[in-house]
Every structure is written in C-alpha cells, then in structure tokens.
Amino acid sequence: MRAKMKMAVAALGAFVLTGCITVGPVVTDVTLSGNRLIVEKTTYQYNDFTGQVTEKSRTIEDLGEIKCN
C-alpha cells in the first residue's frame, strides 16, 4: 500500500505544478478473482495549505469474465 501511495504522491506532484487539486481516478489495484477481472480506482485530493494528500473516493469495478483461448 505504501508503494501505491508513493506513486500517487509522485503523480500528484506533477499535477500540483500545473495547478490541479484533485487527481484521478487512478487505477490503484487490478485483481483476478477466479476468472473475473476486478479493478480498483482511487481519487486523491491535495490540500495546498497543509501539504497533505488524502483519498477522496474509491470505487471497485467488476469488469467481467476473462476468456482465454
């Protein structure tokens, strides 16, 4: 989880230089559950006054069944 947060903070740093405050949704996890693909997306928010990055929202999507030939 720390590696994901570091990656999000690095991406957020690039956006902050351009004036953005909210970043995302960013794909933070991809999981194969049986033969179904599950994707987690997170939106982050940067507070310019405190310098803190917080998680604003998280969604989990089931993209359906994966078929391999």
Q: Which stretches are low in confidence, meaning pLDDT under 50 for 5 or more residues running?
A: none
Shape: elongated
Number-wise, the strands total: 3
Q: Quote the average pLDDT.
A: 80
Order of helices and strands: HEEE
Number of helices: 1
Adjacency order of strands in the biggest sheet? 1-2-3
Largest sheet: 3 strands, antiparallel
Q: Can you tell me the number of structural domains? A: 1
Q: How big is the Rg?
A: 15 Å
The percent range for helix content is 10-25%
Quaternary organisation: single chain
Return the structural class: alpha+beta
Q: How many angstroms does the end-to-end distance come to?
A: 33 Å
* Percent strand: over 45%
